[in-house]
Amino acid sequence: MKPIAALSTFFLLFAMLGNAQTKTYKSIDAKRTAAPVKIDGILNEAAWKDAALLTDYVEFRPKIGALETPATKTTTYLMYSDNGIYFGGFCGESTKDSIATELSGRDGFGTNDYIGLIFDTYNDKLNGFEYFVTPLGEQWDAKMNPPSQDGNMEDFSWNAVWESGTVITDSGWSFEMFIPFSAIRFGKKEVQDWGVNITRRRRKTEQQNTWNPIDPNVNGFLTQEGVWKGISNIKPPLRLQFSPYFSVYANHFPVNKAGEKNWTSQVNGGLDVKYGINQAFTLDATLIPDFGQVQSDNQVLNLTPFEVKFNENRNFFTEGTELFSKGNLFYSRRIGGSPIHLYDVYNQADSNETIINNPTESKLVNATKISGRMQNGLGIGFLNAVTKAQYATFENTATKGERKVLTDPLTNYNVLVLDKTMKYNSSISLINTNVWRQGPDYDANVTAGLFELNNKKNTWNLGGKLAASNRFNYLPDNKTQTGFSHELHFGKTSGRFNFNVSQERTDTKYSSDDMGYFTNNNFLTHSGWAGYSWTEPKNWYNRIFLNFNGSYSALSKKIAPIEDKYQSARLNTNINIQSKKLWWIGSHLDYSFRQNDFYEPRNEGWYFKRGASVGIGSWFQSNDSKKYSYSTEVFMRSSINFYNSFALDVTAMHSMRFNNKLSLSQSISLQPRFNNMGYTYVEGSSNINFAKRKVNTIEHTLSAKYNFTNKMGITFRARHYLSNVNNKEFYILQQDGQLLANTGFKPEVNQSVNFFNIDMVYTWQFAPGSFINIVWKDASQVFSNKVDNQYFKNLGSAIDQDNNNNFSLKVIYFLDYLTLKNRINTAHKS
Questions:
Q1: C-alpha to C-alpha distance for 811 and 764, rounded to whole angstroms
Q2: Pick from 511, 522, 484: which is nearest to 334 by CA?
Q3: Measuring CA to CA, how many Å separate 456 from each of 357, 422, 425, 649?
Q4: Helix-strand-coil percent breakdown of the chain, rounded to 5?
Q5: Cβ atoms within 10 Å, residue 530
Q6: Using an 8 Å Cβ cutoff, are 127 and 419 in contact?
Q7: Whose CA is closest to 794, among 744, 760, 755, 739?
Q8: What DSSP string runs through 792-814?
Q9: From the CB of residue 821, how many other CB atoms can be counted at a distance below 10 Å?
Q10: For 362, which DSSP code?
């Protein structure tokens, strides 16, 4: 059979796998109201009597299909007006003490009961909007999307402005929500049917119920929604919202050359804008952005050949960016990240010069994004950002004259995404990322096509990616470097038994590093995963998940003079169990075959032969709805006939919730490495040096939270990180991947690193979407080649340093154009 005919036959068989399964979905007719409703949690307005009634909730966790008891019955009402959507109801409980409550702050789950409304406004089974409220009236919201690279389907960084009110009684709690049409996206049909579901969670029993029944063994949550039918003649208002900000900073730096303490101050002002281009698309822009109050990065000592991937904490780059995450081509920390010539300048200083300033981050000038989805299912996302040129400053030690050297040119970043949803929650996507740099530095572009296909029964999935990268004017020959990459996966996605097989390959020139997080190219990897689940509670357990997976990786092209293309192979199995007491326990076992590590030597054409190893671990987590909860995890890896290398990871965490307002938590992680073998930089050496070393790493975090109300609270987080590297024996890497003992070689390359950070934040939401934030940030770091394993001595050393202290006040005021216009008109009339 010819290849094309074979491929066509395969796709035909895939599409025909099974007939459409028979499943009943609830539907409810849309009810419209023109009557006023006060959002205070008390459903005493006449309008609620004519609203659609949604009841008969069904449990899907832990017991699938169980009905509510009369004491815990959920009764809800849904209706809409010219301006938005009203949702209210009552969550029954046998006693007031059965209600789980905690003040956790905006978008904080905590240990709360909650009820949430989920809309699939385009009815594509892929994209949704969620709005949740707790018994104490705290809100959180999210966008639901197809699973991202990390498996996450909910984007809780997305925020909308809407109203809610709650009241707790002896027999449960009542709630009211109003979601203006400006807080949701939908098509422009005169009459629309939306996917809808409602979920309620009772934390003390971990029961979760939904209005339309959910089967956790079926692929997807939105694929199992009911229908809200006949929504007619709704038009979103003009969506024009401003969030001007004003901020003041006071910075206390370590002592300067003259032994004087440095105090500096800064006053900033800027504006965030949201504009509804039409019913589907929204423009977000940040002008003169200020991200000085974001949480400090978790800095670590990096002994690997790859860069550390940090979390994104800047709101503009986390909120509503789900389209841009497709294909794993966009790593937002590239924007405003390290200058591309940050370290090059150290080789450009003359003998009589010192570097007195070398910025480690490029300053963001502005950023804009446009995103949305049309009625036909076409989603469009466009993001553009500009960073200004950065310079290092050299000082002549004799004349005190200064000169500047460019470390990062003016740079423009943009991402374009087209994402078309199709039948059976399938989709195809096109992603393009582009980096343009002013001047002689190279520019970069990556384009990728993605597809995800599901059969009619929603039980089988076929997907993949094909990508091409281009680096223009790329050194050393100033030509265009073009590379290619592909990925293909196939699997079963519904039922108690599921599996997935995949292949991923890149050539030697492919790179998405300029706009994405990228570690290496030139590989061909095959992976497989199979899992089985027990989701019906039995005897002593609620749920059990068991899986097996393995991978095999080789170079896609040989690297001269190395003949062997093999890289690595691994097998592992995992089991996770939830008990009837709502405890979780899990275990992990893996075997890693011997490896050819082409990256640890930090030199192309070399590799390091690692030995095989066995890893085993387990973890335990108590019921986190209790006032006191804890968890622990232990993992160990032992080499097989490879320098007696042994690694141990021990993590422990516990938290205490004293009342609804105050809670404390502490976590500690210990990571000792015995006879660890790795690359070691030795200045002036022409060899590729390795060392047998003992590495001790401790990370300790203490967190506290106190919320005065559901609009005001204080959070405190202190983190200390210590890592000591004590080199015992030295080796020289040979061309065959083996190590040759370098007897008598004792360079001073031991390392001791301490990082200490405090982030303390006071937040007050004084009006919808408007905040006052007061932040104190304290940071210190200690580097030394003298290793001291006394933990408290290291901690004291980090605290006693001349720390960087930063105090800031930021006021953000939310302005809605229509609200402001109505107030002005009312004032004129009066």
A1: 10
A2: 511
A3: 61, 12, 9, 45
A4: 10, 50, 40
A5: 17
A6: no
A7: 755
A8: HHHHHHHHHS--EEEEEEEEE--
A9: 12
A10: P
Q: Count Cβ atoms within 10 A of the Cβ of residue 36 and give its class: 0-12 exposed, 13-18 middle, 19 or more buried.
A: exposed
Six-digit token string for 774: 């007061």
Q: Quote the DSSP letter at residue 21.
A: P
pLDDT at position 150 is 47
Amino acid making up residue 816: D
| CA gap 596, 594 in Å, rounded | 7
347, two tokens:
């080789």
Amino acid at 72: T
What is the residue-averaged pLDDT of the chain? 91
Phi and psi based region of residue 641 (left: phi greater than 0; alpha: psi -120 to 50; beta: remaining)? left
DSSP letter at 181 equals G
Q: Count CA within 13 A, CB hemisphere, residue 829.
A: 6
Burial of 738 (0-12, 13-18, 19+ CB in 10 A): exposed
Output the DSSP codes for 420-442: EEETTTEEEEEEEEEEEESSSS-
What does the buried/exposed string (b/e) look like for 781-817 if buried means 16 or more CB atoms within 10 Å of the residue's CB?
ebeeeeeeeeeeebbebbbeeebbbbbbebbbebebe
Residue 38: how many CB atoms within 10 A of its CB?
12
Q: What CATH number should be reported for the domain whose range is 24-232?
A: 2.60.40.1190
**Which residues, listed in sequence order, are joined to residue 503 by a DSSP beta bridge?**
488, 526
Torsions phi, psi of 162, nearest 5? -150, 175
For every residue of 67-91, DSSP letters joined together read: BPPGGG-EEEEEEE-SSEEEEEEEE
- Dist. CA 562–CA 553, nearest whole Å: 16
How far apart (Å, rounded) are the C-alpha atoms in residues 382 and 321? 10
Most confident of 158-162, 329-333, 370-374: 329-333
Q: How confident is the model at residue 1 (pLDDT cuts 50, 70, 90)?
A: very low
Q: How far apart are CA 115 and CA 197, in angstroms?
A: 11
Instruction: Determine the residue type at 533.
Output: S
Instruction: Report the distance separating Cα 501 and Cα 494, nearest Å.
Output: 15
Lowest mean pLDDT among 67-76, 320-329, 686-695, 808-817: 320-329
Instruction: State residue 239's pLDDT score.
Output: 86
pLDDT digits (tens, 9 = 90+) for 703-761: 999 999 999 999 999 999 999 999 999 999 999 999 999 999 999 999 999 999 999 99
As a whole-number percent, the residues of the chain with pLDDT over 90 amount to 77
Upstream peptide bond of 62 is cis (omega within 30 degrees of 0): yes
Pick the range with the lowest mean pLDDT from 120-129, 406-415, 453-462, 745-754: 120-129
Q: Predicted confidence band at 261 (pLDDT cuts at 50, 70, 90)?
A: low
Backbone φ and ψ for 403, nearest 5 degrees, come out as -140, 155
- Helical (H) or strand (E) element with 8: helix 3-15
Beta pairing partners, 418: 380, 430
What is the total residue count of the chain?
Answer: 830
Cβ neighbours of residue 747 under 8 Å, at least 6 residues apart? Answer: 682, 685, 689, 730
Q: Cα 126–128–132 angle (5° rounding)?
A: 145
Q: Report pTM.
A: 0.90
The closest alpha carbon to 440, from 405, 391, 474, belongs to 474
Alpha helices in 105-212 (DSSP H): none
Sign of CA dihedral 743, 744, 748, 751: positive
For residues 190 and 219, is the Cβ–Cβ distance under 8 A? Answer: no
Tens digit of pLDDT for each residue in 284-319?
999 888 898 999 999 999 999 999 999 998 888 988
Rounded to 5°, angle at Cα 783 from 780 and 788:
105
Question: Which residues are CB-neighbours of 528 under 8 A, at least 6 positions away?
Answer: 499, 500, 501, 502, 549, 550, 551
**Is the predicted pLDDT of residue 20 greater than 70, yes or no?**
no
- Domain layout of the chain by residue ranges: 24-232
Angle in degrees, CA 181, 186, 187, rounded to 5: 130
Which tokens go with 241?
A: 């919202």
